[in-house]
Amino acid sequence: MTGTLTEKILSRASGKTVSPGDVIEAKTDIVAFHDLTGYHVIEVMEKANMMKIFDKTKIVVAFDHLAPPPDVRSAEIQGNIRKFVKEMRLPNFHDINVGILHELLIEQYALPGQVIVAADSHTTTSGAVGAFAQGMGASDVAAAVITGKTWLVVPQPFKVTLKGNPGKWINGKDVALELLGKFKADYFNGMSIEVHVQNPKAFPMDYRATVSNMGIEMNADALMFVPDVETKDYIKTMRGKEVELVTPDPGAKYLDEYTIELDKLEPLVAAPYSVDNVKTAREESKVPVDQVYIGSCTNGRLSDFRIASEILKGKKVKTRCIAIPSSYTMFKQAMEMGYIEDLVNAGCVVTYGTCGPCLGGHFGVAGPGEVIVSTSSRNFRGRMGSNEAKVYLSGPSVAAASAATGYITDPRDVQ
């Protein structure tokens, strides 16, 4: 029997051959939570009187959503989680100075073929390296922390092929928005998306992480890139580790498939108030912008800041611009490359490693009537602050070009 990537990963994790629709119990390789959800995970464990952990080395905790804490309650919650981490002697704890959980998972932990569960919907980000990664609620994550197992319905695999090379200002966000515009936000319910890249080096890990991150916006159970030479090189560069690749068998059966020709993509945006309200940037050009946000676990990586730097270097922003690399590693690399200096000189406010504006938490909350261009993942009413604000999602090139002009701008139109 030939297997897709989904079937091969979940067969290993469950100890038996699986098919779409099967209900299985799967062993977890990594279980994670952050400051906003960790409180509830620990609460479930306490109420069940089961304060135990299946394998301390497989638990990852990171403070990112409200980090540093903007209010007393956030500080209190983080203090309680620090106490839990200390009492349980968890080695993989990342405080406010390290980075966003999903970025840290792909930088330091996630491997091809793993099953990863975390108490956050954007856990799908780890699919960038070929892991089956899924966000779950506090009760399911608490059970996984205690037992090292979770239950799953094996999803229907759907094949996406990326063909050719992306144009100058195109990155992973445009691929994610292309899929959302084509299939809409609910189409992939009960499916796992497996992305095959014909030219691996043309679509690097930064881009893959963006697409995988937005798998949950497509309502997919998981979105995984088939591991290839880019996967091996990324993990070798970031961790000095050689990895074995888990790939689909030749002739594996998919529910359906779709091909994206990368060289035909244009810079895209998702207009308010839905991720699948997709338009070209030029269709929305001349919409005045009050704030631009470049960052988040969706688009806070080195290539995002390289693109923003290239557009904004030598210019002054004409609107508020907040730039947040997703981890200390990304911030330091961007600083060494001069990207941070370029953005600061352009008038951007820069920090690192916090979700902040993405969820309307702090460090750039949207006010009533404001228009925001954001490289984050969601644009429903109230996501970034006021219910009366309008959020347009874009990649870093459209965001930086919009900061440079003060209105939504296709980067090809910036001189």
Can you walk through the features of this model?
This protein is an alpha/beta fold and 415 residues long. It has helices at residues 5-14, 35-47, 72-88, 101-109, 138-147, 172-183, 205-213, 229-239, 296-299, 302-312, 328-336, 339-345, 396-405, and strands at residues 23-27, 30-34, 59-62, 93-94, 115-118, 132-135, 149-153, 156-163, 191-197, 222-225, 257-261, 268-270, 278-280, 291-295, 320-324, 349-350, 371-374, 390-394. The strands form four sheets. Strands 13-12-18-17-14-15-16 form a seven-stranded mixed sheet, sandwiched between helices. The protein has a five-stranded parallel sheet with strand order 4-3-2-5-6, with helices on both faces. Helix 10 (302-312) crosses helix 12. The longest helix has 17 residues, at 72-88. The N and C termini lie far apart (55 Å).
Short précis:
By secondary structure, this protein is α/β, with parallel strands linked by helices. Helix content is 32%, strand content 19%.
Q: Would you report the number of β strands?
A: 18
Straight-line N-to-C gap: 55 Å
- The overall pLDDT average reads 97
Q: Largest beta sheet, briefly?
A: 7 strands, mixed
- The fraction of residues assigned to DSSP E strands is 15-25%
Task: Name the assembly state.
Answer: single chain
Q: Counting H and I runs of at least 4 residues, what is the number of helices?
A: 13
Biggest sheet: strand arrangement: 13-12-18-17-14-15-16
What Rg, in angstroms, do the CA atoms define? 20 Å
